[in-house]
Amino acid sequence: MQPTFTSSRILLPVRPWFIYFSLFAAAVLNFLPTSHWPGIPDWVALTLCFWGIREPRRVGMGSAFFLGLLMDVADGSILGQHCFAYVLLAYGASALARRILWFPLLQQALHVLPLLLATQAIQAVMRLAVGADWPGIGYFVSPLSATLLWPLLTLVLLLPQYQPVEQNPDRPI
Amino acid sequence: MAGIDHAPPPFFKRGPAPLALLTFYIAISLAVFFVDLRMRSLDLLRQSLALVVDPVQRAAQAPGSLVDLAAGYLQGLQALQEENRELKHAKLNTAPDLQRLAQLESENERLRKLLAVKEREQAKGQVAQILYTARDPFSRKVIVDKGQQSQIIAGQPAIDEAGVVGQVTRVFPFSAEITLITDKDQAVPVQIVRNGQRSVVFGLGNGQLELRYMPANADVQEGDLLVTSGLDSIYLPGFPVAKVVHIERDSAYSFARIFCAPIAAVENFGELMILDPRQPLPPPPPESKGRGNSGEVVNVRSKKKR
User: Fold this and answer.
1) Helix A61-75 to helix A81-100 angle, to the nearest 10 degrees?
2) Which domain holds residue A135?
C-alpha cells in the first residue's frame, strides 16, 4: 500500500500487533487526566478512524463496538453511547477508505473532520435526549484539534511501514 | 451451459455486507443503551469490564499524582508549619464542643429513652480516597478507591469535612462511583435550619443547586443553611448540604427559583467519608401503603427519573 494513492512509495504490510498496540495506547491517552482539558481530542475515535480508513478489513465495526463498550465503562457513561457513535464512525471510515487516499494529507483531514464531529454530536444528542447536562462548547472543539493532528498522526502510525528510500541496487527485488 | 445462472464463487470472502453489519451493531448499541438507562440490568457486564479497564485507568492517573506529590514535596517546610499551626488552632477552637460531645450524646440518648423516642443513629463510615473524576462530560461523578471488597453498596452517602458530597451510585470490585450532589437532577432531601421547613434540593449541573417546588412567598432568605432532613432512608439528618445564595421571586410563576451553593468542596480532589447505610425505617402506616410500596426500590437511587 502507498502512503497516498498518488505517491510512488510502497509501504510494508501493516503488522496486526501494531494496530492493537496503537488502539491500546489511544485508550491510555484517553484515560490521562488531560482528557478533562478543553480541546483534547478523543484519541480512540481518531485512531479508530485512521485504521478504519487504512485497514478497513482489519479494523471495522466489530472492533469499534468493542472499543466503544470499553470507553463507556471507563467513562462511567451509559453503556452503548460510545458503541453507537464509534460503529457509525467505523462505517463512515470504511466508506471513505477508497476515496480519501487520493488526496493530500490536509484534504484528508477535511474529510475526517465531519466524521469526528458527527461522533461527538451523536453522543451529545443521545445524552441530551435522556436528560443530561449540556457539556459546554469545549466538547465540540476536540474534533477540530483532532483534525489538525491528522497529518502528524498519519506520519506516526505509518512509520513502522516505511521502507528506506535508498534501496540496495544489488537486491533481487 | 449449466453454470450460466450461477454467480461465480467469490475471490475474496468479505463477510456480511457493510450495511447489514451496520444495522446489526446499531441495533445492539441502541438496545444496550436503553437497557442500561431504564433497567440498569447490565451492571454485571459493566463490573466485569471495569475489572480490566480499572487497573489501566489507575496507571494512567499515576503521572498526575506524581506531579502532585512532587509539588507537595517542594512546597516546603514553612508552608507545612503554617498549615500545622492553623490546624492546631482550629482543633483548639472546636475543643470545647468536642469534649462535651460524648456527654451530650449520652445525655441525649437518656432523654430520648425517657421520652420513648427512637434513638439517634450513629454516623459511622469509612474513609475513601478520590482516584479521579469520571471522564463523562455530561455528568458529575468521581471514582473512589473503595468498592465491593470494602462492602460498599449503591446508595450510601458520602461526606467531606464540611458537608454532603454525593451518593454512591455504582459499585465495582475495587472502586465505586459517587454521583455528586451538583449532578443534574441529583436530589437531596433537606431542611432549612432557621425555620425547619423541609424541601428537596436538586443539582443543576453547573456546580449549583436549586431548591425546587417552594411557593413564591416561602420563608427562605439568602444565606439560609440547608441540612439533610433525614426523611429518606439514605442521609442521616443534620449534615450541611448547601447555602442559599440567590432567590428569584417572580409572581408570574407559582414557585420561587432558589439557587444554592454546595457547602462541601464538592468538585475538589481529596478524601471523603462514605457513611454506612442507614438502618431501615419503620414500615409506613397502612393508610399510605398504596404510595409507599415503591419506597424501598426508589431508596437506592433517589435521582429523579424522567
Assistant:
1) 140
2) 16-161
Phi/psi region, residue B43 (left: phi>0; alpha: psi -120 to 50; beta: rest), is: alpha
Name the residue type at position B300: V
Whole-prediction pTM: 0.82
Domain positions in chain B: 17-72, 75-120, 125-278
Interface subset of B 3-62, CB within 8 angstroms of A? 14, 18, 21-22, 25-26, 28-37, 42, 45-46, 49-50, 52-53, 56-57, 59-61
Q: Which CATH superfamily is domain B125-278 in?
A: Rod shape-determining protein MreC, domain 1 (2.40.10.340)
Q: What is the pLDDT of residues B98-111, one digit of tens each?
A: 888 888 888 888 88
Which residue is listed with cell 442507614? B278
Residues in a beta bridge with A3 = none
**Nearest CB to B32: which of A57, A80, A91?**
A80
Q: Tell me how many domains chain A contains.
A: 1
CB pair distance less than 8 Å for A79 and B57: no
> Interface pTM (ipTM) of the complex?
0.89
Residues contacting residue A119 through CB under 8 Å, at least 6 positions apart: A42, A45, A85, A86, A88, A89, A143
